[in-house]
Amino acid sequence: MDSVTDDLSTALRARGMRVTPQRVLLHRALRELDRHVTADELLESVSDRLPNIALPTIYATLDLLEELGMVRRVQRAGTTLFDPRVEPHHHLVCTRCGSMQDIDFELDTARLERAAAKRGFVHERTEAVVHGRCASCRDAAAQAGASSPRNAAAT
Ligand SMILES: [Zn+2]
Ligand SMILES: [Zn+2]
Question: Which of 11, 35, 39, 96 sits CB 3.0–4.6 Å from 68 for a disulfide?
Fold first, then answer.
Protein backbone atom coordinates (compact mmCIF):
# COMPACT_ATOMS: atom_id res chain seq x y z
CA MET A 1 0.00 0.00 0.00
CA ASP A 2 1.51 3.33 -1.04
CA SER A 3 1.56 6.34 1.25
CA VAL A 4 -1.21 8.17 -0.63
CA THR A 5 -3.54 5.23 -0.06
CA ASP A 6 -2.31 5.07 3.52
CA ASP A 7 -3.34 8.69 4.11
CA LEU A 8 -6.80 8.00 2.74
CA SER A 9 -7.24 4.85 4.81
CA THR A 10 -6.16 6.66 7.97
CA ALA A 11 -8.51 9.59 7.29
CA LEU A 12 -11.45 7.31 6.56
CA ARG A 13 -10.87 5.12 9.60
CA ALA A 14 -10.52 8.18 11.83
CA ARG A 15 -14.11 9.02 10.88
CA GLY A 16 -15.35 5.49 11.25
CA MET A 17 -15.83 5.18 7.50
CA ARG A 18 -15.09 2.16 5.41
CA VAL A 19 -12.02 1.92 3.21
CA THR A 20 -13.63 0.56 0.04
CA PRO A 21 -11.63 -0.44 -3.05
CA GLN A 22 -13.73 2.04 -5.02
CA ARG A 23 -12.81 4.99 -2.79
CA VAL A 24 -9.15 3.98 -2.91
CA LEU A 25 -9.22 3.64 -6.68
CA LEU A 26 -10.93 6.98 -7.28
CA HIS A 27 -8.52 8.76 -4.98
CA ARG A 28 -5.57 7.17 -6.73
CA ALA A 29 -6.96 7.99 -10.18
CA LEU A 30 -7.29 11.62 -9.15
CA ARG A 31 -3.69 11.70 -7.99
CA GLU A 32 -2.52 9.99 -11.18
CA LEU A 33 -4.31 12.54 -13.34
CA ASP A 34 -2.49 15.21 -11.36
CA ARG A 35 -4.40 18.11 -12.87
CA HIS A 36 -7.71 19.91 -12.50
CA VAL A 37 -10.46 17.60 -13.64
CA THR A 38 -14.21 17.61 -13.94
CA ALA A 39 -16.22 14.79 -12.41
CA ASP A 40 -16.87 13.53 -15.95
CA GLU A 41 -13.16 13.37 -16.70
CA LEU A 42 -12.56 11.41 -13.53
CA LEU A 43 -15.36 9.04 -14.49
CA GLU A 44 -13.81 8.64 -17.93
CA SER A 45 -10.37 7.87 -16.48
CA VAL A 46 -11.66 5.01 -14.31
CA SER A 47 -14.25 3.60 -16.70
CA ASP A 48 -12.03 0.65 -17.64
CA ARG A 49 -11.31 -0.21 -14.01
CA LEU A 50 -14.79 0.54 -12.65
CA PRO A 51 -17.11 -0.12 -15.62
CA ASN A 52 -20.30 0.13 -13.56
CA ILE A 53 -19.59 3.34 -11.73
CA ALA A 54 -22.04 6.21 -12.28
CA LEU A 55 -21.58 9.95 -12.08
CA PRO A 56 -23.50 10.40 -8.79
CA THR A 57 -21.05 8.01 -7.12
CA ILE A 58 -18.14 10.03 -8.49
CA TYR A 59 -19.66 13.21 -7.04
CA ALA A 60 -20.35 11.54 -3.70
CA THR A 61 -16.76 10.31 -3.50
CA LEU A 62 -15.39 13.73 -4.47
CA ASP A 63 -17.56 15.29 -1.74
CA LEU A 64 -16.11 12.84 0.72
CA LEU A 65 -12.53 13.49 -0.44
CA GLU A 66 -13.15 17.21 -0.11
CA GLU A 67 -14.39 16.72 3.42
CA LEU A 68 -11.19 14.79 4.15
CA GLY A 69 -9.11 17.64 2.70
CA MET A 70 -7.84 15.51 -0.19
CA VAL A 71 -9.31 17.45 -3.04
CA ARG A 72 -10.31 21.04 -3.57
CA ARG A 73 -13.22 22.36 -5.52
CA VAL A 74 -12.33 25.16 -7.89
CA GLN A 75 -14.85 27.00 -10.01
CA ARG A 76 -14.50 27.80 -13.65
CA ALA A 77 -17.34 29.48 -15.52
CA GLY A 78 -20.07 26.89 -15.53
CA THR A 79 -18.01 23.91 -14.37
CA THR A 80 -16.61 22.67 -11.12
CA LEU A 81 -13.12 21.28 -11.35
CA PHE A 82 -11.53 19.12 -8.70
CA ASP A 83 -7.96 19.81 -7.75
CA PRO A 84 -5.81 17.07 -6.24
CA ARG A 85 -3.38 19.71 -5.05
CA VAL A 86 -4.63 20.95 -1.68
CA GLU A 87 -1.77 23.12 -0.47
CA PRO A 88 -2.30 26.87 -0.95
CA HIS A 89 -1.91 28.04 -4.52
CA HIS A 90 -3.71 30.28 -6.99
CA HIS A 91 -5.12 29.81 -10.47
CA LEU A 92 -4.81 31.27 -13.94
CA VAL A 93 -7.97 30.73 -15.94
CA CYS A 94 -8.05 31.31 -19.68
CA THR A 95 -11.32 32.93 -20.70
CA ARG A 96 -10.86 31.72 -24.27
CA CYS A 97 -10.04 28.00 -24.04
CA GLY A 98 -11.05 27.46 -20.41
CA SER A 99 -7.69 25.99 -19.37
CA MET A 100 -6.71 26.32 -15.73
CA GLN A 101 -3.15 26.42 -14.47
CA ASP A 102 -1.69 26.54 -11.00
CA ILE A 103 0.41 29.48 -9.99
CA ASP A 104 2.49 29.59 -6.86
CA PHE A 105 2.64 33.04 -5.43
CA GLU A 106 2.95 34.36 -1.91
CA LEU A 107 -0.14 36.52 -1.63
CA ASP A 108 -0.84 38.48 1.52
CA THR A 109 -4.53 37.78 1.94
CA ALA A 110 -4.75 38.95 5.56
CA ARG A 111 -6.30 42.31 4.69
CA LEU A 112 -8.95 40.72 2.52
CA GLU A 113 -9.75 38.23 5.24
CA ARG A 114 -10.03 41.03 7.81
CA ALA A 115 -12.44 42.87 5.53
CA ALA A 116 -14.45 39.66 5.21
CA ALA A 117 -14.48 39.27 8.98
CA LYS A 118 -15.91 42.80 9.30
CA ARG A 119 -18.90 41.56 7.36
CA GLY A 120 -19.25 38.70 9.77
CA PHE A 121 -17.81 36.24 7.27
CA VAL A 122 -15.71 33.37 8.59
CA HIS A 123 -13.16 32.56 5.90
CA GLU A 124 -11.86 29.08 5.27
CA ARG A 125 -9.42 29.70 2.49
CA THR A 126 -8.64 32.57 0.18
CA GLU A 127 -7.30 32.05 -3.27
CA ALA A 128 -6.85 34.26 -6.26
CA VAL A 129 -8.07 33.61 -9.78
CA VAL A 130 -6.42 35.53 -12.59
CA HIS A 131 -8.69 35.61 -15.62
CA GLY A 132 -7.25 36.25 -19.05
CA ARG A 133 -5.59 34.53 -21.97
CA CYS A 134 -3.19 31.63 -21.66
CA ALA A 135 0.09 31.66 -23.61
CA SER A 136 -1.20 29.48 -26.45
CA CYS A 137 -4.36 31.54 -26.88
CA ARG A 138 -2.32 34.72 -26.78
CA ASP A 139 -0.01 33.34 -29.48
CA ALA A 140 -2.96 32.17 -31.53
CA ALA A 141 -4.49 35.62 -31.34
CA ALA A 142 -1.18 37.19 -32.33
CA GLN A 143 -0.99 34.90 -35.35
CA ALA A 144 -4.59 35.46 -36.33
CA GLY A 145 -4.68 35.48 -40.11
CA ALA A 146 -1.44 33.54 -40.42
CA SER A 147 -2.24 29.83 -40.91
CA SER A 148 0.32 28.14 -38.71
CA PRO A 149 -0.55 24.96 -36.88
CA ARG A 150 -0.82 25.25 -33.16
CA ASN A 151 0.45 22.66 -30.71
CA ALA A 152 -1.49 24.03 -27.81
CA ALA A 153 -1.09 21.96 -24.70
CA ALA A 154 -4.32 22.46 -22.89
CA THR A 155 -4.14 21.47 -19.28
ZN1 LIG B 1 -6.31 29.55 -23.54
ZN1 LIG C 1 -4.79 24.06 -8.69
Answer: 11
